[in-house]
Design goal:
Blueprint (H helix, E strand, L loop, with lengths): L11 H24 L1 E8 L3 H17 L3 E8 L1 H13 L6 E4 L2 H9 L7 H8 L5 H5 L2 E2 L2 E2 L2 E13 H6 L10 H13 L5 E2 L6 H24 L9 H14 L13 H9 L5 E5 L3 H7 L11 E4 L13 E10 L5 H10 L2 H10 L3 E2 L11 H12 L3 E3 L1 H4 L2 H16 L4 H13 L2
Helix pairs in contact: 9-10, 9-17, 10-17, 10-18, 11-12, 17-18
Keywords: Signal
InterPro entries: Bact_solute-bd_prot1, SBP
Main location: periplasm
Length: 430
């Protein structure tokens, strides 16, 4: 050994000083590492009320965990769907991202972008939620996300306009009832329905919900296995036929295929149409987007179920989302810890108290304050099967096809048979 490599013994005082110095150095390094921990959360654009809710949750978490900074980032709905795959492949990927579960989540898992949360969830975490909520984020018996809330699609109704036209909203129970209401509204000079056809997914609510009514959630699962003609089967063709017959009644506003979801939401808030087929989440955004910022007054606002369809085996099923968050593969343990905090029982109860959404945590429904939220909770509790949006449940590529054919059907640019064949083809070659 060279002299320069010899390790000479230190006097006791020197050893104590070195140990103290190393301890301080180690502590500073640990503090620096902790202080540098940032958790980035990517979320679809939401109302200002919900943003404040998240800000309050973050403030409480950061107060309890001074070494962690949590940052929420928001992207508009349609842009989110197109940008997320690119972001997940980049070094700008978030630590936590908003997810609708289903085949879209499977695509991300199989691409290696998502962290497996099975072990963490089994430590009492998943016991907070109904089994159906956890199932939406479970693939091959492994859990890859945690549920935030369930959503239901239904018709928002401005009763001031429907009553003006002599339409009884509560009497709309069947598809024929809806068609009659549309005709009556149009004849009275009221625009019956507003839709954001430009974005694709709002129009898919019609085709997707009609397919769910006709095939049922179980029938859609069977179609995925190729049973009964797959997505070329009779229920999916008939869904297109019913949508096209509906459009022939001239239900929508002028230029509906050039209208974004956000604009349609504002138009309903401004009283420009009697009905808006949209998720329950639109309660606050529709008000905020209106010219007055107040939207349709609560006393003139109703939320009604999507109507039943003759011979539909899914008439008792619901259609909407089971929304939550997933964690990216290389995210820190702090990211998982924050997500668990965000979705704990107390924070979900607070969301219910604020009327932001209908949380899925057990007992949180007790805090629901608005009649719309309670109606959604009732629909979910009475539902035989909650079918997740088809543009999410069938995966990104098939979902894009579903959105495209829905708009094409509304414009009369495709036959119901061809539309169903395109969905089947997309599913087969996904």
């Amino acid at each position: 050994m060279h002299m320069s490599e010899q390790r000479l013994p230190l006097p006791a005082r020197g050893r104590r000083w070195l140990a103290a110095a190393l301890a301080v150095s180690s502590g500073l390094a640990a503090f620096a590492a902790a202080a540098d921990t940032t958790v980035r959360v990517l979320r679809v654009e939401i109302s200002d009320v919900e943003k404040q809710y998240y800000a309050d949750v973050v403030a409480e978490y950061e107060a309890q965990n001074p070494g962690v900074n949590v940052v929420f980032e928001y992207i508009a709905n349609e842009a989110y769907k197109t940008r997320l795959p690119t972001l997940l492949q980049s070094n700008q990927r978030p630590d936590i991202f908003y997810s609708w579960g289903g085949e879209g989540l499977r695509d991300q898992v199989e691409a290696g972008f998502v962290r497996d949360l099975t072990e963490e969830m089994q430590d009492g975490w998943q016991d907070l939620y109904p089994e159906s909520a956890v199932r939406a984020f479970t693939l091959d018996d492994r859990v890859y996300g945690a549920p935030l809330y369930a959503t239901v699609v239904g018709f928002w109704a401005n009763t001031a306009l429907t009553e003006q036209a002599g339409v009884d909203i509560e009497a709309i129970e069947t598809w024929e009832d809806l068609q009659e209401a549309v005709t009556t509204l149009r004849e009275s000079g009221v625009t019956p329905v507003v839709v954001g056809g430009q974005d694709g997914w709002p129009m898919h609510f019609y085709w997707g919900y009609l397919a769910t009514r006709l095939a049922g959630g179980e029938g859609i699962e069977m179609a995925k296995e190729g049973a009964n003609g797959g997505f070329e089967g009779e229920p999916f063709v008939r869904a297109g036929e019913l949508l096209q017959a509906f459009v022939e009644l001239n239900p929508f506003q002028s230029g509906f295929m050039a209208t974004s979801y956000e604009r349609a939401s504002a138009m309903f808030g401004d009283g420009e149409a009697a009905l808006h087929l949209m998720g329950d989440w639109d309660y606050i955004p529709s008000k905020e987007r209106s010219m007055t910022g107040e939207g349709v007054p609560d006393e003139d606002l109703e939320f009604i179920r999507f109507p039943r369809v003759d011979d539909g085996v899914g008439n008792d099923d619901s259609f909407g989302g089971m929304n939550g968050f997933a964690v990216t593969r290389d995210a820190s343990d702090e990211a998982v810890d924050f997500l668990r905090f965000l979705l704990n029982e107390e924070n979900q109860r607070e969301a219910a108290r604020l009327g932001i959404f209908v949380p899925v945590a057990h007992g949180s429904e007790e805090e629901l304050d608005t009649p719309y939220a309670r109606k959604v909770a009732q629909i979910l509790s009475e539902s035989n099967f909650h079918q997740v949006f088809l543009d999410q449940a069938l995966g990104t590529s098939v979902g894009a096809t579903v959105n495209d054919i829905s708009g094409d059907l509304a414009l009369g640019e495709i036959t119901p048979e061809k539309a169903a064949a395109q969905v089947e083809e997309a599913w087969m070659f996904r």
